[in-house]
Amino acid sequence: MNAHQNHGFTLIELIIALSMLAILSAYAIPNYRTFQLNQSMTHEINRLVATINHARNQSIIAQQSVVLCATASELGCDGNSQWHAGWMAFVDHNQNRVFDGSDRLLLQEHGMADSLRAQASVYRPYIRFDRTGFAPGANQTIRFCDQRGAEYGKAVIISNVGRPRLARQITSCD
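^ that's the sequence the OP posted. Answer follows.
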């Protein structure tokens, strides 16, 4: 009977295991960062699309004009089309497209992650749904970009019918 039993790893086994761990980590960490950035963008797009659908549905249900706009101040529409700062939706009773005393706030959303930008045309700073759920005027495009640029960017396009759709490729972040 051998009274001297070894429990554990040899130095060679430990070096081989650590080498394999280092190689696997070198492949996994960059892919994990890309996964995180993609998930963050998808989450924020889904959050905005849910708000767009909610505002459109409320305009149909209430048979009133509903405005959805970007805001960082949370007091009213900023008019700067910087959707990453936050947004709000309200029933526009007097149809002046300004959040004032006669209007009813439907919801207010906080800003997006700092690494993400969501920007629309300065010529269409808000989305107005009429009582039928249509969003009259030109199509509204809100472009989403992060530090990786337009190659990884996406866009939400709201048609005149008021329905949002996703564009998986964009040419510019501006």
